[in-house]
């Protein structure tokens, strides 16, 4: 028997007024899987993600986490089980790096020495520099460093599931590549289940096991990149063609044997 999904959406719907932000979506995310959710602005990606940790409540359908209906889990307890990384990092500006990372264990009542040890462990895991970063405020960090702190904070309560809303979207391409690869490694090492929203199909193909494509609140397609390329949906095919088209344009513009 296949193991139960880490996250399961069954005919899930969410409207804001007359707008159906998520429209009858059914989707399973297997334990240990890395799923990328792609789609245009306003297609319902963030709403879909936040239905899983009850930052948004569904109007219809069921969302389950490790077999449990989220409606039966206290929202605060649920959010401890699920790490959440915001696009902007979402760090508390008045707290140091260490205090940002340690906030959840602190709220859970962990002893100070245990929190300090966990913070140091996460600083090392996210390849931040303990001596120079630990006591800094977020404003004194680069965008990439802030996102590393955001990931560390989301991991502090040792969640098995990570939800990431365009975590690397605002970064320069080199930092973005490095952070994406580092996180993919961490995902495997820690045995996480990850759902990551991205606008970038290249990032989705390079990092994820499977890709879900949203449009107008509907789940248009889901599958591995190879499975998606067999789709008969014109929008899905267009999204998949974009990375290759970019490579072809780059190949035409950059001389062979050059920096590429
Ligand atoms: N709290 C809200 N109140 C009213 N409308 C909302 C609310 N949250 C989202 N929406 C609308 O629901 C639709 C889906 O929004 P959502 O943020 O899920 O899309 P998205 O695919 O994540 O977009 P983006 O890529 O721009 O972040 C949009 O039309 C948005 O304006």
From TrEMBL:
Keyword annotations of the record: ATP-binding, Nucleotide-binding, Transport
Gene3D superfamilies: P-loop containing nucleotide triphosphate hydrolases
GO molecular function: ATP binding; ATP hydrolysis activity
Pfam families the record matches: ABC_tran
Sequence ranges assigned to domain ABC transporter in this UniProt record: 7-241
GO BP annotations listed: quaternary ammonium group transport
Summary of the function given for this chain in its UniProt record: Involved in beta-(1-->2)glucan export. Transmembrane domains (TMD) form a pore in the inner membrane and the ATP-binding domain (NBD) is responsible for energy generation.
Family: Belongs to the ABC transporter superfamily.
Name this protein carries in UniProt: ABC transporter ATP-binding protein
